[in-house]
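User: quick one, fold this
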Amino acid sequence: MSNRTGKIAAIVLGVLALIYVIGALAFTQVYMPNTSVNGADISLQPRADLRGNFEASWKDYALTVVGKDEKTDTIKASAIDYKETMPDFQMKEYSPWAWPVYAFTKKDYKVNTAIIYDDEKLEKALASMHMVADADITDPIPEMIAYEEGKGYVITEAKEGTRLDGPKLKEAVLKSLHKQDKKLDAKKADLYLKPVPAEDLDHMKNHVASLNAIEEYKLTYTFSDREEVLAGENLINLYKSADDGSLEPDEEKVKKYVAGLGEKYDTFRGTRDFQATGGAMMRVEGGIYGWQIDPPKTREQLMTAMKDKKVQSMEPVYKRKAVSRNVNDLGNSYIEIDIARQHMWLYKEGNLVVDAPIVTGNPYAGNGTPTGTQEIWAKERNRYLTGETWKSFVKYWMPFNWTGCGIHDSNWRGSYGGRIYLGGGSHGCVNTPPSKAPKFYENAFMGMPVVIYNSNKHAI
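Assistant:
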């Protein structure tokens, strides 16, 4: 039994010795397993053909690039004319007799090779990659301020996209080609664009806090039968960012907003459609009657309210006021004068109180009574009215514009109405019969609208 065992052992040792010798002789001609140059595998390749085999290895080499959403692209070295040539170099020699040890040891030689490729073809290859050119590629989204129902303004989390960083991709591909990597993982190589915060996080937090504080209040301008509400985005738009990100009233924006209020709600010197006695509708332009916002004081009022951040209703600060703040700011108490019909009416609370024929200014002498919506701004008794060439005593005087025109009695006239004004009209005032003047005077009040029109010209 022992002799048989000895024979078997001798045979095994003999076989191993033979394999060892054959391996040693073979590795004098070829490279050992696990041998590479710059990542290119040259295992078991003839030593004499090292350079040729290394340069030929690029012919069929291809790099697979994998990315997010299971996108995969392949870049062939031949498609971009990529190849490397190897100069002479001194390779560290391992004794072939030690092959049982070194055959299982990884050996990668780093050599400065000459790299050649067509950059234009490489750029085109990169640009046509699925993970670069597909329509579903998304950009990274940084932390942003957004409005969420039920929560108000919040800072959203940053989100990574699927768009690659072009320069980093090109650099990584060239490095992988040089090493003859089989695969390049774009995510692991950190080749995707990163979300870039729009601003400092503390700055954003201050901004959000201010936004939510503004969301909690509103300002309401009241105009009798209308309201102008400042709230939400419209109110926020009147603020600006301070250095720390918080919001403060923007004086220029407030100035523009107040100017807009004036354009929308001011009626001073405006145009009105007026229902004339007799049923016709007149379009009356100009005059000194109406509402007029005081811009500087209203701006100051609004700036203060915006700093307080409290719910409140208020009226603009007015430079001039009228009888009613309704859309129809005349109210239902006014004096009506029609130049064409040479007649005047006074209504109080919608009821006709008094009317009379009149004589207005002589248009042929350049003294035509000015049309428009005027107002009674003074009431005087027993005074003289004077001009360059005349002086007249009147018992009742009610000026209605700023050029000296008004309503007064005229005891020097014997008749009124008709076409008297065309040749013998006044200097612009409304001459009223003495018998009617007292009642007009008694029922008129300071600020009372005086609507003057010419029904032959202003009917619509």
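User: anything notable?
Assistant: The longest strand covers residues 391-399.
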